[in-house]
Write a structure and sequence with these properties.
GO biological process, one term: intracellular protein transmembrane transport
Main location: membrane
CATH superfamily of the largest domain: Multidrug efflux transporter AcrB transmembrane domain
Family: Belongs to the SecD/SecF family. SecD subfamily.
Radius of gyration: 29 Å
Number of helices: 12
Order of helices and strands: HEEHEHEHEEHEEEEHEEEHEHHEHHH
Subunit structure: Forms a complex with SecF. Part of the essential Sec protein translocation apparatus which comprises SecA, SecYEG and auxiliary proteins SecDF. Other proteins may also be involved.
CATH class of the largest domain: Mainly Alpha
Keywords: Cell membrane, Membrane, Protein transport, Translocation, Transmembrane, Transmembrane helix, Transport
Length: about 425
C-alpha cells in the first residue's frame, strides 16, 4: 500500500466532509464567520416572495432615441430600487418600451410601486434651499479627468452642459454663491428624487453654461454620477401596466420541497453509482460532492440569485455530471476488458471519453449562454445555475474524478478488476 497517496486521498475526503459541514451549518472562527449556504445565498422572487411590476414608457420616440430613453429610465429605477435596500433586484427592458422590475423580499409593495412609478426630478439647490436649475435644463453630462490645481494629478470629475435657459439660471446662481463668504454658503447641492448625490462648492461664476463637479472621487463614481444626472433629466412618463405580489409562504414551501426532492435524487444517484460501478462509483460520489459544493459556493461568491427554475437547472447539471462519469467509466471498463492494466485503462479511458464529455457539455453551455443573454426573470435564474453547473461538471469529471481514481489505484489496495466493473 502506498502510504503517501493514501494520506492525500484521505485528506481530500476530509476536506469534502468539512466543506459539506460548512455548507450546511456554517463556521464561526472568532472574527471570521461563514454563514450556511441557505442563509447566504440570494433567493429570487418566486422563492422569497416580493413584488414585480411592468412599466411602459409613454413616448412617441422610436429607434435609437427610444433605446436611449429606456436605458436612462432603467438607470433611474435601479437607483431608486437600491435606495429601498432590495437585495438583488432584477430590472430588464422588455419589448423596446417596457421595463420589468422584480423586487425579492420587499414587504411594503405600495411604497415600491410609488417609488418606481414617479417621474424623476433632478435639482440644483443653493445653500438657502432655493432651486437654481432643474434636470430638464441639462443637455449633457459626461465623466472626465481634470488636473488638480494643488497636486497636479489627474482626478475624475463630471462635466455639465446646460441649455440656454439653464446656462442663464446657473450663471445667476453661481454669481449669488460667489457673493457669499467662502464656506457652506458657496455650496450648490445636486439632488435626485429628493436625495443629495453631490454637493460641490462654487469656485467661480459660470457664464458659458458649462460646469464640472469635482470631489476627489474615482472614475467609477464619476461615471455613475454622470449617468444619474443624465437620467434625472429624462422627461419620460412611465405607466404601470402590470403588477403582482407573490407571498413568501408559497415560495419558501416550494424551496423546501425542491431541496427535499434534490436530496432524495442525489442520494439515489449515489446509491446507483456505488452499486453499479463500485470503486469508480465511490470516486464519483466524492467528485459529485465536490461538484455540488463548487456550484453552491460559486453562487454565493458571485451573489447569484437562486430561483425555482434555477434549482431545476442545478439538478439538471448534476444529472449531466453523473452522465459524464458514466461515459468515462464505461470507456475505462472497455480498456480493462481489453487486457490493459488499471492505470493504463484509466488514462486511455479518460482520453477516449474526453471528446464526448466536452461535446455534450459545450453544446449545453452554449444553450445556457443564449438563455441568459435573451431571457428574463426566472429564465435567467435557470441559465445562471445551468452555466455554473456545467463548468463545475466539466472540471470535476475531467480533473477531479481522474485524480481521485488514479490516487485510489496508486494506493494498491486491490487489483481485483471486478471492483472496477470489468
Amino acid at each position: 500500500m502506498n502510504g503517501k497517496k493514501l494520506i492525500i486521498f484521505l485528506l481530500i475526503v476530509s476536506l469534502v466532509v468539512l466543506g459539506g459541514y460548512i455548507a450546511a451549518n456554517g463556521l464561526n472562527l472568532g472574527k471570521y464567520e461563514i454563514e450556511p449556504v441557505r442563509e447566504s445565498i440570494n433567493l429570487g422572487l418566486d422563492l422569497e416572495g416580493g413584488v414585480y411590476v411592468v412599466l411602459e414608457a409613454q413616448t412617441d420616440a422610436t429607434g435609437d432615441e427610444l433605446n436611449q430613453k429606456m436605458q436612462e429610465a432603467k438607470s433611474i429605477i435601479d437607483q431608486r430600487v437600491n435606495g429601498l435596500g432590495v437585495t438583488e433586484p432584477n430590472i430588464v427592458i422588455e419589448s423596446d418600451n417596457r421595463i420589468r422590475v422584480e423586487l425579492p423580499g420587499l414587504k411594503n409593495t405600495q411604497e415600491a410601486l410609488d417609488m418606481i412609478g414617479k417621474t424623476a426630478e433632478l435639482q440644483f439647490i443653493d445653500s438657502e434651499g432655493n432651486i437654481i436649475v432643474t434636470g430638464k435644463n441639462v443637455e449633457e453630462s459626461e465623466p472626465m479627468y481634470i488636473e488638480n490645481q494643488v497636486t497636479g494629478k489627474k482626478e475624475a470629475a463630471v462635466s455639465l452642459n446646460f441649455d440656454s435657459e439653464g446656462a442663464e439660471l446657473f450663471r445667476e446662481g453661481t454669481e449669488r454663491a460667489m457673493a457669499k463668504p467662502v464656506g457652506d454658503g458657496r455650496i450648490i447641492s445636486i439632488v435626485l428624487d429628493g436625495k443629495e448625490i453631490s454637493a460641490p462648492a462654487v469656485s467661480s461664476v459660470i457664464n458659458n453654461g458649462e460646469a464640472s463637479i469635482e470631489g476627489g472621487f474615482d472614475i467609477e463614481y464619476a461615471t455613475e454620477l454622470a449617468t444619474l444626472i443624465r437620467a434625472g433629466a429624462l422627461p419620460v412618463e412611465m405607466e404601470e401596466v402590470q403588477a403582482s405580489v407573490i407571498g413568501p409562504t408559497l415560495g419558501l414551501t416550494s424551496l423546501d420541497k425542491s431541496i427535499y426532492a434534490g436530496i432524495i435524487g442525489i442520494i439515489l444517484i449515489f446509491i446507483f453509482m456505488l452499486l453499479f460501478y463500485r470503486i469508480p462509483g465511490l470516486v464519483s460520489v466524492i467528485a459529485l460532492s465536490i461538484y455540488i459544493m463548487m456550484v453552491l459556493f460559486t453562487m454565493v461568491s458571485l451573489k447569484a440569485t437562486l430561483t425555482l427554475p434555477g434549482i431545476a437547472g442545478l439538478i439538471l447539471s448534476i444529472g449531466m455530471a453523473v452522465d459524464a462519469n458514466v461515459v468515462i467509466f464505461e470507456r475505462v471498463k472497455e480498456e480493462i476488458r481489453a487486457g490493459k492494466s488499471l492505470r493504463s485503462s484509466v488514462d486511455s479511458g479518460f482520453k477516449k471519453a474526453l471528446s464526448t464529455v466536452l461535446d455534450a457539455n459545450i453544446t449545453t453551455l452554449i444553450a445556457g449562454i443564449v438563455l441568459f443573454s435573451f431571457g428574463t426573470g426566472p429564465i435567467k435564474g435557470f441559465a445562471v445555475t445551468l452555466i455554473i453547473g456545467i463548468i463545475a461538471s466539466m472540471i470535476t469529471a475531467v480533473v477531479v474524478t481522474r485524480l481521485l481514481l488514479k490516487l485510489f489505484i496508486g494506493m494498491n489496495i486491490t487489483k481485483n478488476t471486478k471492483l472496477f466493473v470489468a
